[in-house]
Design goal:
single chain; 196 residues; alpha+beta; 6-stranded antiparallel β-sheet; 4-stranded antiparallel β-sheet; 20% helix; elongated
Length: 196
């Protein structure tokens, strides 16, 4: 019976769903063409993928873990802190740079007008593939005019079905061990001696 339980546990672990990757992005806008600056952190269930071309993968400000934005002033926009607007991720975008080369782009959104849908956004260009590569990345276009950094972290989170199989497996092992122990207790040994 114990062999059956071990076989069940082994098959549950082998055929369990793989863990899905959770990605955390830490972006830091060091400078911008409109004198804006800021940072944001966001954790996503996977690598963001542009689904509608030029718009990219948009993340509402409410889904950001942290976000700070501001400006040192330009035109009619006074210097000061401003709320963050939605942030846009454009992966492998070859249209926005003007050169035709593909880049991973973050459009850093700042709500200068107190209207989250009408905001200023500056483009920060990273090497193509930065969104799906763990580590530290720096902007590659426009130099100090629009400089920024991006840190990418991946972590694995088991699927719910995997958790269920693991718990089931531990329960099966506990049941088998308890049954084996009770079987040992119920075994009675007799010693028979013959008087000769």
């Amino acid at each position: 019976m114990m062999k059956v339980w071990w076989a069940a546990l082994f098959s549950a672990l082998v055929f369990a769903n793989p863990a899905r990757a959770v990605v955390t992005y830490e972006f830091n806008a060091l400078s911008g063409g409109y004198n804006n600056y800021g940072t944001f952190t966001v954790t996503l269930p996977g690598v963001p993928t542009s689904t509608n071309g030029i718009i990219g993968y948009e993340i509402p400000a409410s889904q950001l873990t942290t976000c700070q934005a501001g400006s040192s002033g330009f035109g009619s926009i006074p210097a000061g802190a401003y709320p963050c607007a939605f942030q846009s991720f454009r992966n492998n975008d070859s249209r926005s740079s003007g050169s035709g080369d593909p880049y991973d782009i973050i459009v850093f959104g700042v709500d200068f007008f107190n209207q989250p849908d009408v905001h200023g956004g500056l483009f920060y260009y990273f090497n193509s593939g930065a969104f799906e590569t763990a580590g530290h990345h720096e902007t590659v276009l426009l130099g100090a005019q629009q400089a920024g950094t991006l840190n990418v972290y991946f972590s694995a989170v088991p699927e719910p079905a995997t958790w269920a199989l693991i718990i089931l497996g531990f329960g099966a092992i506990g049941y088998a061990m308890r049954r084996q122990r009770s079987r040992r207790r119920s075994t009675v040994h007799y010693r028979v001696s013959y008087a000769g």
